[in-house]
Write a structure and sequence with these properties.
heterodimer, A: 494 residues, alpha/beta, Pyruvate-ferredoxin Oxidoreductase, domain 3, six-stranded mixed sheet, two-stranded antiparallel sheet, 8 strands, B: 711 residues, Rossmann fold, seven-stranded mixed sheet, six-stranded parallel sheet, 26 helices, 26 strands
């Protein structure tokens, strides 16, 4: 072997199938050839390309003045990659997990954008992998760590992430050729114009100062006058209660909002000192009480679907021009329970008895498509929204208020005895969500936990089971077949 | 077809002295033309699909050269094509994905290798082993040995691959034996360059047809001549092959200064080995190496003189042979024993039996070998390397707080197969779990979350056959799922006709998307014709193409339902009926919906053109109302569409993320269908967006706005 080894530059790109990684690889290979370098690139297309993780690997070096041609590897060697670029944040994590990012060698460019995996999305609660962990690992493991939202930059330029990855790689100096060579490789034409714009924006961003993480600001702002009503509550609870108060007013009326306020203030007499666990319990209670009191019935859904802001939001989300015309169609399929829920209690109960006896009438179970942007559809929805006028006398309203009072009483007892138990109990109504079958499942889980753990704690005056209660709540969110919850409740009974 | 090869076709025309730039598998294609093949065939599958795809698209060039290109309907039909080279001195090549395709082709391979060939016969197999592979088990090597077909495993650089292809034909002709050339997945897709030569027009071809067909019993694979063939394989053909291999220097001997030991390596592993040696300071980036090396570009047969010549006088040799079992090592062992060579032999005792031989793995094996036989070199930092990498991984795992969520491949955005599995999931919820025998194809993505269906996979087109035993003892009727690709590859014969013959019960679902989509959307006999796709425009073109239905009716299937996959409710009803009907016999549901990739390929330019011309265009997408979504994600558990995702709620009161549809939505309609069929929730909406609205559209919009105050 010779003593003057030629230095080989290694570049690994982690991406998802269908993101244009092959195009990026071709650009890089083209530039290397134009620059007179020896280059080799490999990838694993085929079935792996169908939306799954995939990677592209490139090696290049100066052409040797004498002797044999360089021998390039076809797979990246852990710890021996100079530049790793990932089009998505968890793909960057995957590269680190495989040992491909080294603190002595690797410049890591990670797009902070997330394309959630199916297992993250399908959870009943929040299954998202924490982005902060990827950032921490990157800071730990890369020699240089560049975080950019390459997807957002690409979208702003009207192009694909392949173009912004190319720009970011060029920006951090991954290539032994100049920017003009890259731009020439992208070529000309309409699509190339957008690619070039994306390339340039990412190039500058990768060279510029690290961007401050911009969290998208929550859309609802806190009304300070409402917050004053809750001045006795700890800060977070106060803010959430202000939102809850506003939500109840929008949902029903001022009196209903005042009921919310009374319930909250009853939970926390003003003279209480702030204590973290208690503060958390109150904040969670403010949140859950608001969501529970504004449960989604047909009237609420119709009300929300006909809000003026909604159409503007849809237009923005679909990136529509002013000149384009929008038609919005809803998919509704109310079940017998949901219809009974909005009817006056007696009528609703009679209706359900009839359904139990004779089966549901023909119109139930038929999917309805209502075009809310049409005159007829809009008026239909507005009409349904009017059911809120008789909501106070409706079947479900009575049921929910009783359940809320039962929960509040339990909260009160728990807050006095064990803030930890109260904090867990405050989260219990999180299980009550959804419509139809989902709602029934949530209700079943809620009732099972309330009866087995909460009611017995109150009866015995023993609130030491906070851990158990918490475990049962997570078990309820683990699977839709309530296998985990049943196992958990069996275990805690023993 | 999924990809256009317009640029690649140009590079197939390159002549003497011009530089070819491109993919490994296309370099093979070019080499075939340089070698003067008369015919080419094959069956698609990663990583060799492109070989055939580019030739199918390069009709003009092929016709000009006189090369007959055949898209075979399975690998057996491809292998049988090589029969042309038994009786006539014509060169031909076929290709498929191994090991799967070689299994299917086995019968024809036996009968090809028995009489042997007059003209060069080459089989290019994608040895799909290791990272990113979908069929990683077993080796093609065993087929080479059992059928006495020679096997090449060239170093993965383009000049070597091209040289091996050209030499393979000469070797085949010199030894009257077919030759296989195996390329691993990354070698097929490696981008490199080589110096081209002119394409050669075959002497016997469609342009120069043979006047008569000579009868020679020796060319038949039939007793009594097969007895003589069996003897010839080893008495004549193999010695001739060995003479050719040694005479043309197909295997490469590389010297190194630590001559007391040596490495024998499969050509395909050479690059990984060099990188491993570089890591421990025994090679440089140009491949100059301190350890002597024998690189086997031909891995079967081995040449005893070459092996003895390389091994004799050394203390030890290490055989670097990927995958199991260690055929090469065993053969070398016999060779050395017979020649009474006392060199120590190592291989699978120092390297792992199974799994890809990456540089990282090789560093570990090399270190053991060197420590034992060249102790003066020390550990060479191999241990530091493995410690360093172990530490990197453990650091990552700690910082990440656990493994990153897996991201297996899945259905594309708007894939018509997804709604079928949504329906099946709803049926499962009502009836409880039933046996699902699944198959090879895009639909096998339903084995992953969120669907998680499947109790067995037995092979391409085998699902119905594989449920024949199960149905006799399960309470619920088992379902066999098969793509139209699998149906034509094998399923019609091994599954459907077997059920009809036995008049037995069964339930088969055929996913009719019109193409073999998983391998790159190649055509089938039931692919919609141009007239049908034209008529369909942007809609699904598979509903009017009835070859499968006609075939099934023709052979006597009495219970058949065709349902468009996007009608989830109808599909659910059809499945329920099929599961519960008292009809005793084969029931077939044809789940029809054109491959979305193909549809979009047609639709996108149509839409762009219409937009550019200022015509009225409606785009449909779906959405979820943030305000009404409660964050349970039932909808995602029924879909798994990449564009149906989650986001942090804009409502501070909600702590769980809400469902969200990204702007990548192609408006396939599943979200709305599933919301209805599963009674999900009222959060989904459909947005129809009219570009270049007509004056009537505008007028109506204005009137509507008066009432609704919006949109």
């Amino acid at each position: 072997m010779s003593d003057q080894a030629i230095k080989v530059r290694t570049i690994l790109i982690g991406a998802l199938g269908g993101e244009g990684g092959g195009v990026l690889m071709d650009w890089i290979v083209h530039c290397a050839r134009m620059s007179g370098l020896a280059v080799q690139a490999t990838s694993v297309p085929g079935v792996a390309q169908r939306t799954g993780s995939t990677s592209y690997y490139i090696e290049m070096c100066d052409k040797p003045a004498s002797g044999p041609q360089p021998v390039f590897a076809l797979t990246p060697m852990p710890g021996r990659v100079d530049y790793v670029a990932a089009s998505e944040f968890v793909e960057a994590a995957r590269m680190m997990e495989r040992g491909l990012v080294s603190p002595t060698r690797t410049v890591l460019i990670a797009s902070t954008s997330r394309m959630f995996t199916t297992v993250e999305k399908m959870q009943m609660g929040d299954g998202r992998f924490e982005s902060e962990r990827v950032a921490a690992a990157g800071r730990d493991l890369a020699k240089t760590f560049v975080m950019l939202d390459l997807d957002a930059i690409a979208r702003a330029a009207g192009t694909m992430v392949s173009a912004t990855l190319f720009g970011a790689l060029a920006g951090v100096g991954a290539f032994p050729w100049d920017r003009a060579t890259c731009e020439a490789a992208i070529g000309s034409g309409r699509a190339a114009g957008a690619s070039r714009a994306g390339f340039n924006a990412a190039f500058e961003a990768a060279r510029g100062p690290a961007p401050t993480q911009t969290q998208s600001a929550p859309e609802n702002t806190i009304d300070m006058r409402r917050a004053d009503k809750f001045s006795g509550l700890p800060t977070e609870a106060r803010n959430l209660a202000a939102l809850g108060h506003a939500r109840c007013a929008d949902y029903q009326d001022g009196a209903y909002a005042d009921l919310y306020a009374r319930r909250m203030l009853d939970l926390a007499p003003a003279d209480d000192a702030e204590q973290p666990e208690r503060a958390h319990a109150l904040a969670e209670a403010a949140r859950r009480l608001a969501l529970w009191m504004t449960y989604e019935d047909i009237a609420r859904v119709a009300q929300l679907k006909t809000k003026r802001e909604r159409f503007a939001k849809i237009r923005a989300e679909a990136e529509m021009d002013d000149d384009q015309i929008l038609a919005v169609t809803e998919f509704l399929k109310p079940g017998a329970d949901e219809i009974a829920a909005v009817l006056p209690a007696r009528v609703g109960a009679a209706f359900l008895r009839r359904v139990a006896r004779k089966g549901p009438p023909g119109f139930i179970g038929q999917g309805l498509q209502v075009t809310t942007t049409s005159v007829r559809g809009f008026l239909t929805m507005r009409l349904l929204a009017q059911f809120r006028r008789i909501r106070r006398s409706s079947l479900r309203f009575g049921y929910e208020q009783a359940a809320i009072d039962r929960w509040l009483a339990a909260m009160q007892a728990a807050l006095a005895a064990s803030p930890a138990f109260a904090a867990a109990l405050a989260e219990l109504p999180r299980l009550l969500k959804g419509y139809g079958e989902t709602q029934a499942r949530g209700q079943r889980n809620y009732d099972a936990i309330f009866d087995r753990i909460v009611a017995s704690a109150i009866a015995a005056g023993d609130f030491s089971g906070a851990k158990q209660l918490r475990a049962a709540i997570s078990a309820a969110l683990a699977d839709p077949e309530h296998a985990a919850l049943d196992a958990e409740l069996r275990a805690s009974a023993q | 077809m999924e990809r256009s090869f317009a640029t690649e076709i140009e590079s197939l025309k390159l002549g003497e002295g011009q530089v070819f730039h491109g993919e490994g598998i296309l370099a093979v294609t070019k080499a075939l033309l340089q070698a003067g093949v008369s015919y080419v065939g094959g069956y698609q599958g990663a990583p060799v699909s492109h070989l055939l795809d580019v030739m199918v698209q390069a009709k003009e060039l092929m016709a000009e050269l006189g090369v007959n290109v055949v898209a075979c309907t399975n690998e057996a039909s491809a292998a049988a094509m090589l029969g042309a080279s038994i009786a006539y001195p014509v060169r031909g090549a076929v290709t498929w994905k191994s090991i799967v395709g070689t299994n299917v082709a086995a019968d024809a391979l036996s009968n090809l290798s028995s009489p042997g060939v007059k003209g060069g016969a080459l089989i290019v197999v994608g040895e799909d082993y290791g990272d990113g592979a979908s069929v990683i088990q077993e080796r093609t090597h065993s087929y080479a040995m059992k059928s006495a077909i020679w096997l090449m495993d060239p170093r993965p650089d383009l000049p070597t691959i091209v040289r091996c292809v050209e030499k393979a034909f000469e070797l085949s002709e010199a030894s009257h034996t077919a030759v296989m050339l195996e390329l691993r997945i990354r070698a097929c897709h490696v981008q490199g360059e080589f110096m081209a030569r002119d394409n050669k027009k075959p002497e016997i071809s469609m342009h120069n047809r043979q006047p008569s067909a000579p009868h020679d019993y020796n060319t038949l694979s039939h007793p009594p001549v097969t007895f003589a063939h069996e003897r010839e394989k080893y008495s004549d053909r193999m010695p001739a092959a060995r003479r050719f291999i040694v005479g043309h220097g197909l295997n490469e001997k590389i010297d190194g200064r630590h001559g007391e030991v040596g490495l024998i390596v499969q050509g395909g592993i050479y690059n990984a080995l060099i990188r491993a040696l570089q890591e421990i300071g025994l090679a440089d980036s140009q491949g100059r190496c301190d350890l002597p090396m024998l690189v086997l570009n031909v891995v079967y047969p081995l040449c005893p003189d070459e092996i003895v010549g390389f091994s004799a006088g050394r203390k030890a040799v290490l055989v670097i042979e990927e995958s199991q079992p260690e055929y090469i090592e065993h053969e070398i062992s016999s060779i050395l024993r017979r020649a009474d060579i006392q060199t120590s032999l190592h291989g699978k005792d120092m390297l792992p039996m199974a799994g890809e031989y990456t540089s990282e793995v090789l560093v570990g094996g090399l270190a053991k070998f060197i420590e034992k036989h060249v102790p003066r070199l020390g550990n060479l930092g191999a241990r530091n390397y493995s410690d360093e990498i172990a530490e990197l991984r453990s650091k990552a795992l700690i910082a990440l707080g656990g493994p990153a969520p897996a991201r297996p491949p899945g259905f594309c955005i708007g894939c018509p197969e997804r709604p079928f599995f949504s329906a099946l999931k709803l049926v499962e919820k009502e009836r409880g779990p039933f046996h699902v025998s699944t198959d090879i194809g895009c639909h096998s993505f339903a084995t992953f979350a969120p669907f998680s269906f499947g109790n067995s996979i037995l092979g391409f087109g085998m699902s119905l056959a594989s449920s024949a035993g199960v149905q006799s003892f399960t309470q619920k009727r088992p379902i066999a799922i098969m793509g139209d690709g699998g149906f034509w590859h094998n399923g019609l014969l091994s599954g459907v006709t077997a059920r009809l013959l036995n008049k037995s019960d069964g339930l088969l679902v055929i996913m009719k998307n019109g193409y073999t989509s998983a391998t790159g959307a190649q055509d089938l006999v039931s692919t919609p014709h141009a007239a049908e796709t034209r008529a369909a425009g942007g809609a699904s073109a598979t509903d009017t193409e009835l070859t499968i239905e006609g075939t099934l009716a023709g052979i006597g299937v009495k219970w058949m339902r065709s349902v468009h996959t996007y009608r989830v409710g109808e599909m659910k009803a059809a499945l329920n009926e099929a599961m519960s009907t008292s009809f005793d016999g084969l029931k077939v549901i044809i789940a029809e919906g054109e491959c979305q990739l193909e549809r979009q390929r047609r639709l996108k330019p149509m839409r762009a053109r219409a937009l550019a011309e200022g015509k009225r265009v409606v785009r449909t997408r779906y959405g979820v109302d943030d305000e009404t979504c409660t964050g349970d994600h039932s909808c995602i558990r029924l879909s798994g569409c990449p564009t149906l995702t989650v986001k942090t709620s804009s409502d501070q009161l909600k702590s769980d993320p809400v469902a969200h549809v990204t702007n990548g939505c192609v408006g396939c309609g599943l979200c709305g269908e599933a919301a209805h069929a599963a009674t999900l929730c009222p959060s989904f909406y459909r947005a129809d967006i009219v570009s270049n609205p007509s004056s009537l559209d505008r007028l109506f919009a204005r009137v509507r706005r008066l009432f609704t105050g919006a949109a």
